[in-house]
Design brief:
CATH topology of the largest domain: Methylamine Dehydrogenase, Chain H
Largest sheet: 5 strands, antiparallel
CATH class of the largest domain: Mainly Beta
Helix content: under 10%
Number of strands: 36
Number of domains: 2
Strand order of the largest sheet: 1-2-29-28-27
Strand content: over 45%
Structural class: mainly beta
Shape: globular
Distance between the termini: 55 Å
CATH superfamily of the largest domain: YVTN repeat-like/Quinoprotein amine dehydrogenase
Length: about 425
């Protein structure tokens, strides 16, 4: 059984400086309304049939849209219920990373196991698994990076290869089969043709030495989610652009996961602020428990459905499927066009349609200082937003309507 309903309600300000929006269809699966074995969902994947697999703190769950099957230590060869990573290999076999028992593989009939006692794995704790374009499996453990290719193992560690950290947190592969590897406190690893290049704060100028999620954008460039440094990206020449609380509309620097959604926007999971969506270059949207039906602000993992929906695994409330309505997409696009010019010399034109829709407009600085709040009556008397007296820089416009809210950055020359 699943619970499903659509939210189309007026919005209220949550009390923080950020404004929020909701116009989504929500579907919830948890241990109370489904056979999901545990409400802590740490990883997800889909198989070639479009069916779903969820890794929880108490077992592995399969869902085909109607029926559930749960695999635990009590009914399968699994010897560890704490699932941390899932990935299908080229043959369609599921690789299952655990915290204490290494990797289990399951081809829907037979089970096998890789651990340090019978393979080249450097540790039992598996944090990430990723298949590359040639079919090799890349494995991040807390004691090093491993590759499995046609029965052969290769391992990279601090001791053997001079890595800055053995704690491998995340792995991504681009269209050139280049690997981007995140660590905890050891910077980034770029690996191509057996050559590893390391980047740290000191040697490379990256914004943070830890990355907990990596996504490759449509332009082929990597984006990194940090547990303490916010969001950052590489322009392809190791020139880093950082989005954090001091220079953008992001509400927290503590991120957990990242993906590129069907609109080529970045969706970020966080530890305390729910879901954060960045539509480049500067439009931010935040969904949390105060302004939406999101049941938990601590997001552990994200997955993009082929229908464009987002799946979010939470720390305490199971898994949520979130589908944005076409109406909201159209409104966001249209309102970005109704505030112009941007950049501006100081006067920002307020289109009549924008003034009709907008119920509140809050102007603030990037460091969170509130400058002005304008209600619908104020806006009705204005043809231009006057920023002439403000110094040059970037300002945040928090826009509230009856159906959604968003954040737009305005550059004043």
């Amino acid at each position: 059984m699943n619970v499903k309903f659509t939210i189309l309600l007026p919005l209220l300000c949550s009390g923080s400086f950020f404004l929020f929006g909701q116009n989504y269809e929500w579907t919830f699966y948890n241990s109370d309304n489904s056979p999901l074995p545990e409400n802590t969902v740490r990883c997800m994947t889909m198989d070639s049939n479009g069916d779903y697999w969820f890794g929880t703190d108490f077992g592995l769950a399969f869902y085909d849209g109607t029926n559930w099957t749960v695999y635990t230590t009590s009914n399968s060869p699994l010897t560890d219920n704490a699932i941390r990573s899932l990935e299908f290999d080229a043959s369609g076999t599921l690789w299952i990373g655990t915290t204490q028992s290494g990797i289990f593989t399951f081809d829907m009939s037979n089970w096998s196991v890789f651990d340090p006692s019978n393979s080249g794995l450097p540790d039992y704790f598996i944090r990430s698994i990723k298949k590359d374009l040639l079919g090799a499996m890349w494995i991040g453990t807390v004691e090093g990076l491993a590759r499995y290719d046609s029965g052969n193992w290769t391992v990279w560690t601090v001791e053997g290869n001079g890595l800055n950290s053995n704690n491998i947190s995340c792995i991504a592969v681009d269209d050139a089969n280049r690997k981007y590897i995140g660590t905890i406190n050891g910077g980034l690893l770029y690996l191509q043709n057996e050559t590893i290049t390391e980047y740290t704060i000191i040697e490379g100028g990256i914004p943070d030495n830890s990355a907990i999620g990596i996504a490759i954008g449509n332009e082929g460039l990597p984006w990194f989610a940090s547990p303490s440094g916010g969001l950052y990206t590489d322009d392809g020449t190791q020139t880093w652009t950082s989005y954090n609380m001091s220079n953008s509309g992001i509400p927290t620097n503590s991120l957990t996961s990242i993906l590129i959604d069907s609109d080529n926007s970045l969706l970020l999971g966080s530890t305390e602020h729910g879901l954060i969506r960045l539509t480049l270059p500067d439009n931010w949207e935040i969904l949390d428990t105060s302004n939406s039906e999101l049941p938990d602000n601590h997001i552990l993992c994200l997955m993009l459905d082929p229908d464009g929906s987002i799946w979010a695994g939470t720390s305490m409330a199971g898994v949520v499927k979130i589908k944005k309505t076409a109406q909201l997409n159209d409104q966001l696009t249209q309102h970005n066009k109704l505030l112009f010019p941007n950049p501006t010399d100081g006067l920002v034109h307020l289109d009549a349609d924008f003034k009709s829709d907008c119920t509140e407009l809050v102007i603030g600085t990037q460091d969170g200082k509130l400058l002005q709040t304008l209600n619908k009556a104020d806006l009705s008397q204005m043809d231009y937003l006057n920023l002439l007296d403000l110094p040059s820089g970037i300002y945040l416009l928090h826009i509230l309507t009856s159906n959604y809210s968003t954040v737009i950055r305005i550059l004043k020359n």
